[in-house]
Amino acid sequence: MNIEQAKAIPLSIILEKMGVNPHTTTPKRIRYLSPYRPEKTPSFFVYAGDNRWYDYGDARGGDVIDLVQCYLESQQVGATVSDALRWLKNMIAYQPITPVSVPDAYPACAGKDQTLVFKNAEPLKHTGLIRYGESRGIPPSILKQYLEQVSFLNRNSGKTLIALGMRNESKGYDVRNPNFKGCIRTKDISFIRGTIPKPPGIHVFEGFMDFLSVITQRNGKPFDDDALILHSLNCMQKGTAYLRHYGYEQCFTWFDNDEPGRKAIAVWDEFCSNEPGLKHIPQNLHYAPYKDVNAAHMAKLELKGW
Fold this sequence. Notes:
By secondary structure, the chain is α+β, with helices and mostly antiparallel strands. It folds into 3 domains: 3-91, Zinc finger, CHC2-typedomain (DNA Primase, Chain A), CATH 3.90.580.10; 116-184, no CATH class; 190-300, Dna Topoisomerase Vi A Subunit, Chain: A, domain 2, CATH 3.40.1360. It contains 10 helices and 15 strands. Strands 1-2-3-4-5 form a 5-stranded antiparallel sheet, with helices on one face. It has a 5-stranded antiparallel sheet with strand order 6-7-8-9-10. Strands 11-13-12-14-15 form a 5-stranded mixed sheet. β12, α7 (208-217) and β13 (226-229) form a beta-alpha-beta unit. α3 packs across α4 (81-91). The relative contact order is 0.12.
């Protein structure tokens, strides 16, 4: 196991191996008792968005390697980076980089797009963006809960643009407005933790509008299960890394009703069949004959979009 593989392991799995259970959970962070020092009031937080932690009672934080080093130090054993990697290899049956068989139609998830230059992200307030979201059937309350207002420079046009944006696991943003759809910084998936610790299921979406459509249909109620937004079928290998050996029992996929979507369903069928105890439950028939979840959602609301 190398450092990159180690940092991809969800901190919740590591803390479980350390014998620490979640105390409280929100969509963005989970609170625990510190795994490496005694305390009565939980002050150790894990942030799901970037898989990092911070211990407010000790003023320390970091990534997976930093946590394991702190833990080993508290056990009065070797706590170098090599020691941390060895502990992880011995304790965590997790291989996030093991590839899944993906058709040639889906090349590896692309790196940074140098055309778009990030400027800033802030809470959503632009009336035009809110109206655009509403035209897709998503109410302002849900737009503001899951998306940000992202400003960026398009080097090709020289113009500064704003768009709805969902942050991904590499601190990039998948963005879209009525006239543009793309990615700022590194292309990656977005992982949204469910309302219960260690849930039995996970929902996998191709795009964030599909995810927001389902949340809207649930009257804004978050999933009890975890959710994963690929943002592109090219990111399927990164997506399967979040499921491998985690212990999910059900995987619900919400892919498009087209040829790429059908191929993606076949890929996840193969992956889930090789993952012990994991059942694949495609959802695409529920929104057929429409192309995707959002299209069916808009049709139900008799919306034409922009």
